[in-house]
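User: Hello, can you help with two protein structures?

Assistant: Certainly.
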Amino acid sequence: NHNNNNNNHKYIEKKYKSTNASPTNKIVAPPMVYISGEEMTSYVCKLIVKEWIEPYFDVSQWEHYDLSCKSRDETNDKVLQDAVEAGSRIGAIFKEPTITPSALQVEEMGLSKSFGSPNGAMRKGWNGITISRDTIHIEGVELGYKNPVFFERHAVGGEYGAGWNSVGKGTLLTTYIPDNDDDGTPDAPPFVVDKRDLTDDHNVC
């Protein structure tokens, strides 16, 4: 409500009044790469920046990159390359969720083609391998579970670029094969890292 917003504003002003300020008496935010996406989350993020950040912080040092489907299509994905370069250079990045359009969305948006997820290129460019995601709890919305759930995704080995195949019943083995020594002999014999039994008629692996 309005009173809560005023209290939040006073708290922000009190907390940061001793830090460096711009000529407009706003707190100068350090350089950051802001990557915008699309859909509802992008609208919400822009609203947060407009209402809760820009009135109190000078964000003129932020670099903005639009990774919406339209922008990626119009620049032939150069905007993604620029965003990755900027993130490597600055070292501070905020990214809104992006979408990888389906064939139907490509047609609906009038895109020339469907560009893949940008996340693989970002992780490769920034040497990032782990995504940490907490659940979002909204008051009044029942999620089907009560306790917090924390997700960790480890993008080790460039899984966005990994191959896949449709298979039937059988056994899936993940095998490690070591490099050879200078004399051509292997450091160690190959061994199975993981074994999964596929019991369905249709599987993707």
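That covers the first. Now for the second protein you mentioned:
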Amino acid sequence: DLYVYYELTGKGLQLTDGLFHSKAISAISKFENSLIELPGWQTLCREAANESKGLCDPGMTLLRYVVPTQVFEGDSLIPSEVTLDAKGYEAVETVTAIELMEQDEVTTLFLPEELEITNDVAPTAVRTSFRFRLPCCTSADSMASRRASTNAFKTRWENFVIDEVLPLLLEGADELEGEKFINVWYSASDIDSIEVKVAIMDDLVLVALALAYVHVYLFVHTRSIL
């Protein structure tokens, strides 16, 4: 699982619709699309069961309800069909988004539980969750086989987070926060141990460079490799 949290700050608190404002929605959409378009993300999501693919693309995001795909027939201003795919070209009214969320009973999944939900609500914080639900084992598999599959996926997840997700999360968060209107936080499965491992590996690189420098320095001044 991966969770991304957004909170308005500074200039963002002046947005009349809060995180429903078009500026905030556009920034969140750009950020989340950059995650979903990662090669490793696409590979993992394709392997998920069909009924679970939506949990990783587009994920359980506010965008599903704010920018759904709407189909109109003829000159009608009322859509004949609404698909909650976060791929719409135009945001719906806040009241409509709230109604759609309440119908699916997911309001508290995105918005703070203590927030009073009204037709003109202007939230300053929202959450998006992504889940990769991949098949692991069958009841016929041995315990050893199940453990091996689980460990293999953990290793795969760790490499994916280190190589693709973390760099983009840090870069994207810095970019959003650089606009001085929205803060971004994240959490994920095993993220604490992964970040500790990354920090240790970075420190080891610095130690190796320092040792190399010392050896070069000694060689230059003593003319000996001993």
